Structures are given as C-alpha cells and as structure tokens.
Amino acid sequence: MKKILTKNKLIEAYFDYRKSHSDSDYWAWEEVDVKLIKNDPDKAWQVILKLLEAAQDDGDLAYVAAGPLEDLLVYHGEKIIDRLEKEAQTNHKLRFTLSGVWRNKISEDIWKKILEWRRPEKLTLSEPYFGEGWEKRKVK
After folding, report:
1. Residue 86 burial (CB < 10 Å; 0-12/13-18/19+)?
2. How many CB atoms lie within 10 A of CB 74?
3. Cβ pair 88, 114 in contact under 8 A
4. What one-character DSSP code corresponds to residue 116?
5. Spatial separation of the C-alpha atoms in residues 65 and 96, rounded to whole Å
6. CA-to-CA separations, 78 to 32, 83, 85, 94, 109, in angstroms, rounded
7. What's the burial of 8, exposed, middle or buried (CB within 10 Å: 0-12/13-18/19+)?
C-alpha cells in the first residue's frame, strides 16, 4: 500500500477522479472505495476525515457521502460509530456530509445514531454547504 503513504496525493487524485474519471486517477478511487473500506477501516476513517478537510465544493462532499463514508458505515459501522460520534461533536463538515449518506445496508442501530448526528438545521446536500460564510457555520 505505498500510495496510502502519500496521503495528500491520494486525496488530490481521489477528487480528480470524481471530476474527470481519468484512468490515471482510478487508482485513488480503488484504494479508498475498495481496498481501504473493505480491508482497513481504521485507515479508511482517517482518509475520510482528510477527504472532508480537503473538499472544495458540495460535489466533493456528496462524493464522500455516497461513496466511502456510506460504504464504511455499511461494512464497519459498529467498529467506527464511536469515532464518528466523537468527531461529529465538532466537525460540521462531517455532520453536513452525513446528510448525504443513504441507509443502504447500514444496521438499524447505527442508522439511528447517524440520524441523530446530522446537522440540526436538517440541511441536506440538495442545499449548498459552500458559499459565503460557510466556514463560520457552527454546529449547535
């Protein structure tokens, strides 16, 4: 897993793949959405946090929500839910991004917790997150 060692390159290539679906960036999608999500939930969680931090627009957040975040919760919800809940206390991007996660095959218990941690304003990914003043938004 040499590519995970260069996390910034992985993050950049992951979002480049979202925009272009270029064969040259496919490795990043495969590394995150296939290898890490299924085989290494601890590293996958760290990469998801980096993806959220690096997201430049609502499309990036939606891509993380419908991809690695949702899949991580499907495959390893029990293992990561405590970390997710702790992070959601202060990470408004995570709470917003949770609004783009679909239930899929997420267990009932995990799904109930996710619903509790979505943004309190019930803002969904159909409403813009980025824009004037987005960085000043606070989670209550």
Report:
1. exposed
2. 17
3. no
4. H
5. 9
6. 19, 10, 12, 18, 9
7. exposed
Between CA 15 and CA 4, with CA 97 as vertex, the angle to 5 degrees is 40
- pLDDT at residue 140 in the model: 34
Q: 42: Cβ–Cβ under 8 A, 6 or more apart, which residues?
A: none
The rounded distance, in Å, linking the Cα atoms of 15 and 10 is: 9
Q: For 68, which DSSP code?
A: I
Token pair 């109930």 is at which residue? 112
pLDDT digits (tens, 9 = 90+) for 68-111: 999 999 999 999 999 999 999 888 889 889 989 999 999 999 99
Asked if pLDDT for residue 18 goes beyond 50, the answer is yes
The contacts of residue 31 (CB under 8 Å, 6+ apart) are 1, 3, 4, 10, 14
* CA gap 12, 10 in Å, rounded: 6
| Distance of alpha carbon 57 from alpha carbon 131, whole angstroms | 9
Overall average pLDDT of the 40-64 stretch: 95
